[in-house]
Amino acid sequence: MATKHEQIIRHIDSLPVGEKISVRQIAKELNVSEGTAYRAIKDAENKGYVSTIERVGTIRIERKKKENIEKLTYVEVVNIIDGQVLGGKAGLYKTLTKFVIGAMEMEAIKRYTGPGNLLIVGNRTEVHEFALRAGAAVLITGGFDTSEEVKQLADELKLPILSTSYDTFTVATMINRAIYDQLIKKEITLVDDILTHAEESASMSVKATVADWYAKKRETNHSRFPVLDSMNRVVGIVTGKDVIGQDESLALDKIMTRNPLTVGRNVSVASVAHMMIWEGIEMLPVVDDQKRFAGIISRQDVLKALQMIQRQPHVGETIDDTITKQFTAGEYAGRQAFDFEVTPQMTNQLGTISYGVFTTIMTEAATRVFRQQKKGELAVENLTIYYLKPAQIDSVLRIEPNILEVGRKFGKVDVEVFNGEELIGKALMMCKLIEK
Fold first, then answer.
1. What angle is formed at CA 77 by the lines to CA 76 and CA 82, rounded to 5 degrees?
2. Of the candidates 253, 256, 250, 257, which has an alpha carbon nearest to the alpha carbon of residue 209?
3. Taking the CA atoms of the chain, what radius of gyration do you get in angstroms?
4. What region holds the CBS domain (predicted)?
5. More reliable by pLDDT, 55 or 375
6. Element holding 160 (H helix, E strand)
7. How high is the pLDDT of residue 286?
8. Can you tell me the mean pLDDT for 3-31?
9. How far apart are CA 114 and CA 135, in angstroms?
10. What's the CA gap between 290 and 355, in Å, rounded?
């Protein structure tokens, strides 16, 4: 039976897009306390079902699919620019296709403005009216207002007209940055993208016996199963080692491993890989926000995902991508080395390479040379860095990684960084290999 929290989430999900939601209204309709309604609405906001805007309230919005994450709704624009809604609140849930900067003559604006656009413009009332009639929303910069007639028109057409205190250039930069950040998030593979869902996963009841385990093993050809209680929560893990030599009538809760490690749906695959390596785990149960069983993820799933990620082109670059693009592979004194140019973006306020960038280039060099030897996925276990001398803007550094030890499951790499012929940094990195 669903909890009150789950009932509220389902109710919110069933509401039409654009509908306004309040704590009091939900509490009254579903006969729950206002505290329960408030917590569920906040959870729905985290899940992307609703969005809250100051002086407007909470609105049911269309939940984005991952492939459309680079598109913004007007609700998100309001929150990005710290804006206020002057009119057209009923259209806040709509998605904008592109934004147009209205620093041009009216004739040019007519050519470039159309349905689904967001026109960014100053206090030009005639432009505001034209844009709305053309099917575009309006964002007024500089903290200016518009006429009551334009606000009424926005309400009639259900097209938002927004206002912000920021200037046009700042607003455009903020929206561009938000879209770019979303693109980076889109690339990150999460557990939810690769898990085997609960309905397709083998699990066992806490009331099951050792005999049931053997039957399940014959049915599925697996030996590790999450053990669930009556509320569908993961309370244990049972494996072949647990049942060996046990009486077949013995209940699983007597022999299972209690309080097992679990992982949430929105955890990155990279984090799961580390967890599996450190703990020596082959399979992890996946749980939802209510700690209920949602599926499983195996080490094989994680390896496949990591290999796939490496083959994908990057649409939105992270800081690490920007740094590693500066790498040039080569040789020095018969050993593999990498050159790296210190650009202004890589420096601190003193004009020397930042500690974070310095750490990244040393880790990247060591990882690359180690991958060539082992041909597998690595996880850094320990990194000790000695930053001896600063490197200023426009310096070209030479990074020389040297493998000291390499085994089946681990490796030790020494890294030296030179500016010209002068040694400016050293590091020692211990890493583990994710076995296939």
1. 100
2. 250
3. 28
4. 195-254, 256-318
5. 55
6. none
7. 92
8. 84
9. 6
10. 40
Q: Which residue has 């583990």 as its token pair? A: 432
The proportion of the chain whose per-residue pLDDT surpasses 70, expressed as a percent, equals: 90
- pLDDT, the chain, mean: 84
H/E stretch holding 285 reads strand 283-287
**Domains plus CATH for the chain?**
4-60 (1.10.10.10), 66-187 (3.40.1390.20), 192-308 (3.10.580.10), 319-434 (3.10.129.10)
What is the distance between the alpha carbons of residues 368 and 364, in angstroms, rounded to a whole number? 6
Give all strands of the β-sheet with 204-205 in edge-to-edge order.
204-205, 225-228, 234-238, 257-258
Structure tokens at 198: 């609960």
Does residue 143 sit in helix, strand or coil? coil
Q: Are 385 and 427 in contact (CB under 8 A)?
A: yes
Q: Rounded to whole angstroms, how far apart are CA atoms 111 and 187?
A: 35
Q: What is the pLDDT of residues 343-362, one digit of tens each?
A: 888 888 888 899 888 998 98
Indicate if the pLDDT at residue 2 is higher than 70.
no
From CA 238, how far away is CA 44, in angstroms rounded? 34
User: 368 and 338 in contact (C-beta within 8 Å)?
Assistant: yes
What does the pLDDT look like over 360-395, one tens digit per residue?
Answer: 898 888 888 877 776 566 678 888 998 888 899 889
Quick: pLDDT tens for 296-330.
998 888 877 776 665 544 445 667 777 877 888 88
The H or E element that residue 18 is part of is none
Distance in angstroms (rounded) separating the CA atoms of residues 57 and 61: 12
DSSP annotation string for 76-128 = HHHHHTT-EEEE-GGGTTPBPSEEEE--S-HHHHHHH--TTEEEEE-S-HHHH
CB atoms within 10 A of CB 236: 21
What is the pLDDT at residue 316? Answer: 52
Say if residues 72 and 137 touch (Cβ distance below 8 Å).
no
- Would strands 283-287 and 263-264 be described as parallel, antiparallel, or unpaired? parallel
